[in-house]
Amino acid sequence: MSGASPVSLERQGDIGIITVNYPPVNALGPGVAEGIKDCLARGNTDPAIKAMVLIGAGRSFIAGADIRGFGTNRPRLPLGQRVYDTLDASEKPVIAAIHGYALGGGFEIAMACHYRMALPSAKVGLPEVLIGILPGGGGTQRLPRLIGVKAALDMIVTGRHVPAPEAKRLGIIDELLPENADLHDSAIAYAMRIMGTRPSPRVRDRMVRLEDPGIFDAMRKSIARRARNQTAPYHCIAAVEASCAMPFDDGCRREADLFRELEDSAEARALRYAFFIEREVARLPDIPASTPVRDFTTAAVIGSGTMGGGIAMSFADFGFPVKIMDATPEALERGMQRIRDNYATSVRRGSLAENEMQRRLARIEPVAGYEDIADCDVVIEAVFEEMDVKKPVFAKLDEVMKPGALLFSNTSALDIDQLADMTKRPQDVAGTHFFSPANVMKLLEVVRGKASSPRTLATAMQMGRRIGKLSAMAGNTDGFVANRSRAPFNTEMVILLEEGCLPEQVDKVMVDFGYPMGPFAVGDLAGLDIGYASRKRRAAENPNFRMQPISDRLAEMGRYGQKTGAGWYRYEKGDRTPHPDPEVAAIIKEVSAGLGIPQREFADQEILRRLLFSSVNEACKILEEGKAYRPSDIDVMWLHGFGFPRYRGGLFFWADGIGVREVYNQIAAWHQQYGERWAPSRLLRDLAESGTSFREAKAAAFVP
Ligand code: 3H9
User: Fold this and answer.
1) How many whole angstroms separate alpha carbon 375 and alpha carbon 436?
2) Domains and CATH numbers, the chain
């Protein structure tokens, strides 16, 4: 092996072992594909070698092409005469020995090998669609030949990681090892068994199994809603279709053409960006990665309402025992019943096995009082969102919890420092703001109080990751970062009604943009009483707070949304479909007339920009106040807290697509027209003047 090569060949008896060693995940970075090719060539010419094993060093087989190379001038996969072709041409059989991940180009290499074996913990998949491209190394042609079109389409269009036992059932893996097996030794033993077999079996020589010629149209139809505005899922289908319509090499050429169309598309750029910022968000510039974290094994949740129950489920779903308590046995039983119902719904829908539900439920222990949770490592307070309700809870926690326990609040807006001040251990207090439904939404906003210790914060961030969340750090500001940046959007959407829009019109614009639901329909789902209560609180605190007369009127009429059968829409009994309601249109008209606001028509683009630009401006203020580390953290929050379409990258990434100057000019114009609420932030003005993109904006030093 030449000193710098990430790929080596060594011989053990008759077997050549090709090892890829390119940490952390053996992506096909510079020199990897060439290294594999070179080793294959040497193995083929070494008469002492009768068969070869391809294996990854470290934690994975090969995680795919180096995503950092896409969209740059760096040759994408410098496969030249490609590694797949070299494998196809290899005289001697090659076994892919898979552990960790074999993904994308890595799985394509495994499919071009003659045999595949894996540990049960391994996963294989073609996740290219998730970064806006398609498998470009023959994956769309080999996989249907290996497992049939139906299963191949499912894997390629969803991009899901398939666990090795399932891959064995599908016919991807030839040999599944026991978990404690030694992969290296087992692969050598396998290679010795098959080294005399000639010719070596090649996936490319197999016939494609097309179970149903209608499958492609059916697939296009079935993804129409979730894949709207996207190209990659459709190109994936077209590439698999080609595997049925043409010989292997022509299919690969078709795949390459489709790949080129996608590689630098706006969608692919946004999805790549999302991939990297989701990893960046874990890095805290002022808290070293080496900060010791508390190793927690037990958790407690106080409050068994919708949020508390969802939080308890999040722990249970990821294997943690969790205790849950409430003010009264009746409230606790109601909360437990809600948890049982939620799990039962998942079982009914087929997304959760009955025995797994039982295991999860067994991890959630309802307890009577504070004494029962005293020895838990972390406790999350999720009681009613009122300072006067939360404060005594923190005082009590301070009294009962063992030293070193971490005390977190699931408040969505209240001042964390005031809660910390109720204890004699403010260093152990922080906010952990879950998004609703807490067991589903991936965002966890970790709120840093002025006394929160680095250890507390690092543990909170890690805790989120260990229960399947994306943790993002936020400063202690009203609404923290996610909700504060979203608040102007919420205000603007009702002001649009005062000016002549209807809820269904606004919702349609946002759904067309890519949100799963429109904001008014979401309001009906969450309950309009919640916003009403928080507006009243804010109005009491701030005399300049702008009330929302239309929203207030609906809430005062008891139109709280789905739960009362009427909100921004009306609902039929037992059905969640929102129906536009003439009564709402009449209220909007009447209130607007009362306010003397002239009515007019709105173009879709104006609606979209009114909502999102208002939030861009607020997000800039958050950065300029040092309440978030970087613009990309806010993008992560929008992707995972609010359902912002991932293929648009995030709020700032999307705004960069329009251009910082255009955004500024529009906001400045609305400032003239509408007054103070549209005053451009200083950071926005600076960015526009210097021509700096939002993504490059520097946040002020973090202020807890
Ligand atoms: C492709 O293969 C195209 C082909 O069809 C051929 C076309 C011709 N590249 O996620 P983690 C980094 S497209 C570059 O935290 P985990 C990652 O950024 C590719 N870097 O670990 C992070 O860096 P840092 C198809 C990559 O254990 C570090 O590795 N493949 C790549 O939670 C650790 O990652 C994919 O889409 C990459 N391919 O999860 C797979 N992968 O420490 C993408 C990872 O600096 N990767 N990094 O932040 C993944 O899904 C996950 O990383 C994986 C490990 C499941 C592998």
Assistant:
1) 28
2) 7-264 (3.90.226.10), 299-480 (3.40.50.720)
